[in-house]
Amino acid sequence: MTLTVEQLTKKFDHFTAVDHLSLEAESGKIFGLIGQNGAGKTTTFRMILKLLVPTDGVIKWGGETVNTLDRDMIGYLPEERGMYPKMAVEDQIIFFGRLRGKNKRDLKKEADYWIERFGLSDKRRALTETLSKGNQQKVQLIVSMIHQPSLLILDEPFSGLDPVNAELLKKAILELKERGATIIFSSHRMDHVEELCDHLCLLQKGKSLFSGAIHELKSQFGKINLTLRGPFMEAQLAKMPGVLSVSCQNDTFRLLLSNEQDAKTIFNEVTKNGFIERFSLDYLSLEDIFKRKVGDGNV
Ligand SMILES: Nc1ncnc2c1ncn2[C@@H]1O[C@H](COP(=O)(O)OP(=O)(O)OP(=O)(O)O)[C@@H](O)[C@H]1O
């Protein structure tokens, strides 16, 4: 089902933390909420979950306006993790699943699956407090999805995970997407968002700068990211038509163009003496777009 948020607003006294935010997250899709520290991501999640009362706005589930979403169909990974430190990993997972009204046998099966999937088999009987931070994070993730929620909200799910475990998490999120869940997550890591999300919202100081499909956002800028490798000089490339900037790293040049069309002229110019090792024209990375839209614009 689709989660729709319309004109959602939260004021704390005179400070507006979330300002008329609208977004739509569909089932079987992954939605990324991106923004700098304090942009309003957690506040948005808390309002969707009714842990905070919105000042204004409407929340819809499957097209119907809802006052409070049914907690049993939501999985939530909060920013501040909260588990029972003295409880064994497996018991913890089953306990939270029981709270969501699931039966023990189904939970056991699901718990076995995810414990194995996240490489925690040897920690099954360990007390949660004895686990490393990353492993505790994985247990908390299993807790948030053990009852097979239709709506999964993950606040910074990748924080504290090493690259191997981040990869495991990515695969798990994709699997939940395949199962048809509606998934929203926040992250500062643009590469994760770029890889996983179908749709995203760029938040700045509580306001949405963009909300929609990633490919729509990327096509707003066009393919202006040109990578070249060959016998060139930086100064020579900088003079070519439409080149806004040139940088060089490990004999690979990166050119930022003002317009996608300029690439054709540059191609003719750089290949006039024949073979070059690399010429690739791409969209800006999400990180570059984010810096342009939200940051200082130095891409
Ligand atoms: N209970 C509160 N009372 C007053 N201000 C609050 C409260 N909760 C959040 N804020 C403010 O609202 C703004 C948005 O905070 P929020 O935690 O939603 O940001 P965030 O995007 O999740 O940031 P981060 O990436 O750092 O987690 C911040 O300026 C924060 O200080």
UniProtKB/TrEMBL annotation:
Recorded hits in PROSITE patterns, A to Z, give: ABC_TRANSPORTER_1, ABC_TRANSPORTER_2
Per the record, the domain of life is Bacteria
A Gene Ontology molecular function term for this protein is: ATP hydrolysis activity
The protein's matches in InterPro entries, at most eight in alphabetical order, are given as:
AAA+_ATPase, ABC_transporter-like_ATP-bd, ABC_transporter-like_CS, ABC_transporter_ATP-binding, DrrA1/2-like_C, P-loop_NTPase
Would I find Nucleotide-binding among this entry's keywords?
yes
Give UniProt keywords alphabetically. Answer: ATP-binding, Nucleotide-binding, Transport
Keyword Transcription regulation in the entry? The reply is no
Which region is the signal sequence?
Answer: none
The family note in this entry says:
Belongs to the ABC transporter superfamily.
| Name of the protein in its database record | ABC transporter ATP-binding protein
State the organism of origin.
Sporolactobacillus shoreae
